[in-house]
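Protocol check, entry for the methods section draft. Step 1: assemble the input record (protein sequence plus ligand SMILES). Step 2: submit for complex structure prediction. Step 3: store the structure tokens unaltered in the notebook. Ligand used here: glutathione. Step 1 record:
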Amino acid sequence: MRLYGYWRSSSAWRVRIALEWKGLPWEYVPVHLVADGGQQNLPAHAARNPMRQVPVLELDDGRLLSQSVAIVEYLEELQPTPPLLPADPFARAVVRQLVEVVNSGIQPLQNLRVLAAMEAAGGDRGAWARQVIEPGLAALQELARPHAGRFLVGDAPSLADVFLVPQLYNARRFGCGLDPLDLLLRVEQAAQALPAFQRAHPDRQPDAVAAG
Ligand SMILES: N[C@@H](CCC(=O)N[C@@H](CS)C(=O)NCC(=O)O)C(=O)O
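Step 3, stored output:
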């Protein structure tokens, strides 16, 4: 499998964690989101994903998948062990609930093109990002608290943790206040101790140094 991504893309990072967690072999193809006016906008990438975004997963037979939720759910079904969804139906729904808080409630409001449009309209990127991320993460923590163990839902890593870790990285990039997020930070630490999460980290990707 081939993953089109960018080292600091939180959505691509989610997919890297899932690939590593499952132990699936994959090849990384960097798409620089800033160089050349954003390589995601070049015809070659637009043909892979008309949304002009990463991640895109290319299967060995050439079939393409975009949208990180669809991709990680595909990987979970392709290779159910080790799992990223709990067995219990309600716990699975809780995981998906937490995933959606990040996936549709936080990240799309602070992605590159939204921030660029905000700035073009005279707004402040950082202030906008903080006003989206801080309450979003506070809500995520409140929703997770009754279900949390060592990880956000129970004692095993799940997709909820896969979506949490990159979002916290973004929160730090924008200088968000993290002090009230004790539970999320504790879970982040537990996740970061796992080799799969370590291997997927942006700093470990081949495009990290070049992008600066
Ligand atoms: N819902 C999409 C979001 C993808 C997304 O926002 N990708 C960002 C990087 S994290 C991107 O490619 N941005 C480029 C741009 O906005 O021009 C997913 O989960 O895959």
